[in-house]
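Board notes (copied after class):
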Amino acid sequence: MDKDQLAAIRNKMLGFIFQQYNLLPKLTLQENVEVPLMYAGVPKPERHERSRVALEMVGLGDKLKHKPSQLSGGQQQRVSIARALAGDPAVILADEPTGALDSHTGREVLTMLQQLHAAGNTVVLITHDNSIAVQAQRIIRLEDGYVVYDGDASDPRAVVTPGLAGKGAAG
């Protein structure tokens, strides 16, 4: 496939949640959620509706016209989650989604991701934090680019041991 075909697949099948929220500061929350929908060619009325519904799902339906700077870090991450959900992706990729948050807000975001998974969404979460990783059903642990564990989170081999922590291990 060429670059445009790959971009189309990414835009239609994947939702991205990043550690840094990647929100555009001059756009409203609703406009931020609409950006990937615009690139996907979704008509404006449908973009408005999908972004509104997604923001309501993450508890920000009353802040559609706010700018990112008017929100807390946790609220900004919720906008990022709404942006990922608005496209109704087959897979949600969450790259260290709690890394920039305090522990309480991080737990709220993890709870939201767990609820999305329970509702039938596939969530792939990338983390270096064992306490987050062990909450997953399945863990794939990498070391130096190689899969060293792929299985159930309850298996003791799923957890990175302290001796490996400084050697490129990821949970």
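Comment from the instructor: The radius of gyration is 17 Å. The longest strand covers residues 146-152.
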